[in-house]
Each structure stands twice: as C-alpha cells, then as structure tokens.
C-alpha cells in the first residue's frame, strides 16, 4: 500500500509538472478556444450559426473569388455563313461572253483577279468600277453586289468569288487544349465549345477547367462544367477573340480534427460544407467535435453591411452543428468560398483522454522509479 501511494504521488507530481508547462498536447483547438470573446462588444470577429433559418440571409452575402468583371456572355445565334471583314482577301473570276469587252481580250472569256484585300474601310478596288463596299456581307451577297456593279458597264458579266479569311475572321485558342493555334471561323455561328473541340479538347490534366474569353479589352470567365451544362452560355465568337483554359485557382484550407490537413483545390464549381468535410477526409472519429465545425472567412471592407444584407465585420466565423438533421441539411446547402478555412474543432473528451494517457504514463514512470529505488 505504501509503494502504491509513493507511485501515485510521483504520478500526480508528474501531471502537475505537465500542467504547469502550459496546455496539454492536442491535435487541434476546441470550439471554446476559437470562439472566446465573440460576445464582447469590441470583438473583432462575428459568429453566425448556419441553420435553415439563417441560410437564405447568409447565401445572399457577397461572394469571394468571383469571376472577373463582366461575368460571361450569353449565346446569341449568328449567321450560318462567313462574313467578310477588313483584312480578308477575295479572289474574283469575271466571265464575259460578249464579242467585245473592257476586261477581256479577243478569244478570252474570263479574267481572274486574285488576292484583292479588303481595306480598313471595308472596300475593294475593282477596275472600271472603283471602290465597292463589301464588309459585313456574306460572300454570296458580296458576289451579287460586285456583279451588279460590273453589269452597269458589262451587261453580260458573271462574277465568281472566293473568300479567304483574315485576322478579323479568325480566333486564337491560346492554351489549355491539345492543339492551340489560330483558327478561321467556318461561319459566324461558331461557338466557344466548337472552338475547344476544334483544338482537340481541353487538356485532361486541368483541374475543374476555367474558360477565359478576351474580347475588346475585357476579360470574361466561366467554367467548362457550366458551358457543358448550359447551352445558353455557349458564347458565339467574334473575329479577333482570344480563348484560353486554365486550372481553377480557388482552394480552401482544412485544419483541425480532420482526416487531411491541407490546401484543397475546388474540384467543382460549387463546394458545400459537407463536400469540404468529405474532401478533407471526414471528421476524426476520436478527436473531432461534430457539434462545432467552423468555417472562417475574411470579407472586404466594402462587403460590410449594417442591415444584415452582408457581414457586420470583416472576420466572420460560420458555425455548423453536424449532430442534428437541420445542421446536416444546412451544411449540404452552405457554400464554401475561395480561401475559406474549414476547421473541425476538437472535442473536450480528447483532452480527457490525453490526461488519462498522461496519468498512466506517469504511473509507469513512477513504477520504474520505484524499481530503481529498490
């Protein structure tokens, strides 16, 4: 009995030494540590529970990591033919069956005019006719227009026209596909998805590919997933457009009592809190507190609102309780945003287990010391 008392005293002293040195070992903070001081008037962060009642309001708040200004351009159907633009070239063959002609010599029935460039003003110069405006016309309409001009001086003239697209009738597929390059638009109803297919498809190594469109000095953005799901978003291209595809740069951080502490990229356009927990390897069975899963987010000063239509403070903590049906359903609807921190807090039971473990370790130490004394 006396030996056990000695071992107990040594164990208690050992635990006292551990406690005097600071906090006990832990795999992550608990909810009390994170939320301490939230109820004070001068707190520099705010806490919002995520429930069925609060979801509509929280979902209307500003989104971080949004697409560049201008969003995306909806599809508008274009002409099913090519359109002549400045910089294009035309090849003309003018047929004349008359006995005498201004264009042909004796015995000659056709005159060919190749490489006629459309001027910046949209015109082409033709002998005996002068300038003829052909820009914004289909090749068939331009042929009819040129033939009408020639028929005033050569009634029997017949015109054949070949159109060769220039820079303003092509688009650049810059990167993120198997065959990037400059592509001539086969018609003016040519869309982004058609261009990506012409380029051999999106590179498989890209993560949640994001499609970027540069037009007129503006940048537009969407995801390949969105384009495939919404045909109305398959933008009709214009000459001079530049398209490139890149990785989704968004990510969230996973810390605490999860199966994976890491920087986790967004695999889809939308990631819910439940998705995030799954991507992080789930909650640790022995350490995590499912009643207090926290999502920490920084808002910009311009996002702050005093009427509830936005956060009241720049630093915000969203609290989820995954032990209730309402909490689970709400977590399945609450969207994680770019650079969020998803924190699975540690249950207080884990600290209790740590103390018990230290106690038994201490008892083991004292037993060894007792043997040494003997």
Which features does this protein show?
374 residues, alpha+beta, 25% helix, five-stranded mixed beta sheet, six-stranded mixed beta sheet
Fraction of residues in H or I helices:
25-40%
Tally of helical segments = 9
**How do the SSEs run, as a string of H and E?**
HHEHEEEEHEEEHEEHEEEHEEHEH
In the predicted model, the low-confidence regions spanning at least 5 consecutive residues are: 17-22, 352-356
What do you see in this structure?
- The chain has 374 residues and is of the alpha+beta class.
- It is built from nine helices and 16 strands.
- It has helices at 2-20, 31-35, 55-59, 139-151, 192-198, 224-229, 273-279, 325-331, 348-373, and strands spanning 45-49, 89-95, 110-117, 123-126, 130-133, 158-164, 170-173, 181-184, 210-215, 218-223, 242-246, 251-256, 262-265, 288-298, 315-320, 341-346.
- The strands form four sheets. Strands 1-15-14-16-12-13 form a six-stranded mixed beta sheet. Strands 8-7-11-9-10 form a five-stranded mixed beta sheet. The protein has a three-stranded antiparallel beta sheet with strand order 3-2-6, covered by helices on one side.
- A hairpin with a 2-residue loop joins strand 9 (210-215) and strand 10.
- The protein is rod-shaped, with a radius of gyration of 36 Å.
- The two termini are 15 Å apart.
